[in-house]
Amino acid sequence: MKILTADQLSEADKITIQKQGITSEELMERAATLVFEEIHKRLEGAPIPIKIFCGIGNNGGDGLVVARHLIQHKYDVQVFIVNYSDKRSDDFLANYEKLKKITRNWPISIKGEDDFPEIGTGDFVIDAIFGIGLNRPIESWMGKLVKTINKSGAFVLAVDMPSGLFSDRVPEKDAAVINASYTLSFQTPKLVFYLPQTMDYAGEVEILDIGLDRQCISESKSGIFLIEDEEARMFYKERKKNSHKGDYGNVLISGGSYGKIGSVLLSATAALRTGTGLCTLYVPKCGYQIIQSGLPEAMVLTDENEEIITNFPEGFGADVNCFGMGVGKAKQTVEAMEKFLRSVEKPVVIDADGLNILSKNNELLKLIPENSVLTPHPGELKRLIGEWKDDFEKLEKTKEFSKEYKVTLLIKGAHTFIISDDEIYINSTGNPGMATAGSGDVLSGVITSLIGQKYNPVTAAVLGVYAHGLSGDIAASKLGMESVLAGDIAKNMGKAFKLISEDFSGYEAESQ
Ligand SMILES: NC(=O)C1=CN([C@@H]2O[C@H](COP(=O)(O)OP(=O)(O)OC[C@H]3O[C@@H](n4cnc5c(N)ncnc54)[C@H](O)[C@@H]3O)[C@@H](O)[C@H]2O)[C@@H](O)CC1
Ligand SMILES: Nc1ncnc2c1ncn2[C@@H]1O[C@H](COP(=O)(O)OP(=O)(O)O)[C@@H](O)[C@H]1O
Ligand SMILES: [K+]
């Protein structure tokens, strides 16, 4: 799903109104009615005290529409108008009049701290103060109101955006921003719902399709995409009946050192569980027994050194190479990495210590084959591209690096970002159970495997990250998050692809 900016969305609102021949008030009614329906579906008429805080722009107008429907469905509703100026929007005013006609319990105006209501843990708060129209931080008594709502312990549902959160920048420290439990947002996701510095404000996010003009949305230029099941299905290639192991890639994974052989074992297991035809590992001698008994399906080549990698097997002719997990940073290993980079021409996958070696030996960067995939977590990324001021600058710097070296980079995290040139893909799968040693090694194995199966490297990275997260979700649903081991993510890769592919065949069957 495309991610658009606030300006693009406002433009889409205008075009929709024109093309569909509706008024902006009708569009507001449509959007806010969807919000009401979501709430009604969950509350099922429960007599919970609902407190709706409305601004005086169109986000506030949405709040008034939601209030009207809730009251008409006999909910216990009190509306508060956050009355910070006299400039009310036309659609706010129209809905204010409509609300007054259906209830005697008129909205209460808040003009300062003295007017703040009591808000308790049992309340259901709807935040309709500011939406995408926010153009400066929330200050004075309004800021205090936001902080009071946050402290109340009430369940907070934000309409479109948590108030105080900008769609294109990180709030200042101590800024007043609603900490929503849930955000119902209109038409497209907003980038700030997924960045580590801002994602917590939005809580759980659901996107409501308010029927904005499809052509306008599809023509809007955006380089940012949220990857969900629909996109994963589009990328997935089914295995052909008439195929053999040579069709699914001959991969070589090089890494490991004394005490860290498990890392390569995990990557190789993941590669094979992702469908690799032939998988060979290149490890120090001490890894031989471990791999042969731990993963008999893999072949093993060993370095002449017992404990570290000091060389790289030239002329092996793998379809794709992966280098770095558990490899350490010894001088001879750096030399082996240089030999590796000089001897390979096709895109490679570089992970973990492979990335740390690159950070310390910048002259190696220009040896990386074009279209390679680098898989840093934020710590490794920082070593590679330097410090950043905030998440927006991090994205810009990562894009620059991607363009300079013509590589795809991951920024791993709760939402992993995949960055290639000017494009950003954001993953939607995964769970905190995956914050466990070795899950990154599994991911490199998955991406390497997909490149070996002839997915282009960007698609391999995007689909690989999605399937890896889905596998983590399957593992967590069976084991509980605390018990997920990286090996469980590898083990469930097949089930993840089955989910992706079964939906696909279901879709095909339906359309026949
Ligand atoms: N335009 C449309 O047709 C639709 C708009 N919708 C709603 O409209 C919202 C956008 O509405 P608006 O553009 O009216 O903007 P908001 O309701 O977000 O904000 C209202 C106005 O407050 C002022 N403002 C911004 N930051 C402020 C601050 N910190 N302190 C004091 N004043 C501040 C701005 O002038 C802004 O226009 C969306 O988020 C969505 O909820 C929906 O109803 C869908 C349809
Ligand atoms: N809270 C989380 N939610 C979803 N995925 C997560 C979370 N924490 C970690 N992950 C995923 O787990 C993996 C961790 O990778 P990494 O930090 O390299 O681990 P390691 O080095 O131990 O293998 C990444 O794919 C990351 O996206
Ligand atoms: K809001």
TrEMBL record:
Alphabetical UniProt keywords: ATP-binding, Isomerase, Lyase, Metal-binding, Multifunctional enzyme, NAD, NADP, Nucleotide-binding, Potassium
Pfam families: Carb_kinase, YjeF_N
Cofactors (names): Mg(2+); K(+)
Annotated ranges, domain YjeF C-terminal: 228-500
Statement: the UniProt record of this protein carries the keyword Lipid metabolism: no
Source species, domain of life: Bacteria
Domain YjeF N-terminal positions: 9-218
Catalytic reaction annotation: (6S)-NADPHX + ADP = AMP + phosphate + NADPH + H(+); (6R)-NADHX = (6S)-NADHX; (6R)-NADPHX = (6S)-NADPHX; (6S)-NADHX + ADP = AMP + phosphate + NADH + H(+)
Record: residues binding AMP: 412-416, 440
Gene3D superfamilies: 3.40.1190.20, YjeF N-terminal domain
GO biological process: metabolite repair; nicotinamide nucleotide metabolic process
Annotated K(+) binding sites: 59, 127, 163
Binding site for (6S)-NADPHX: 58-62, 131-137, 160, 326, 377, 441
Record-level Gene Ontology MF annotations: ADP-dependent NAD(P)H-hydrate dehydratase activity; ATP binding; metal ion binding; NAD(P)HX epimerase activity
Cofactor note: Binds 1 potassium ion per subunit.
EC number(s) stated in the UniProt entry for this protein: 4.2.1.136, 5.1.99.6
Record has Coiled coil as a keyword: no
UniProt record similarity statement: In the C-terminal section; belongs to the NnrD/CARKD family. Belongs to the NnrE/AIBP family.
Oligomer status and interactors: Homotetramer.
Function of the protein: Catalyzes the epimerization of the S- and R-forms of NAD(P)HX, a damaged form of NAD(P)H that is a result of enzymatic or heat-dependent hydration. This is a prerequisite for the S-specific NAD(P)H-hydrate dehydratase to allow the repair of both epimers of NAD(P)HX.
Protein name: Bifunctional NAD(P)H-hydrate repair enzyme
Source organism of the structure: Christiangramia fulva
Encoding gene (name): nnrE
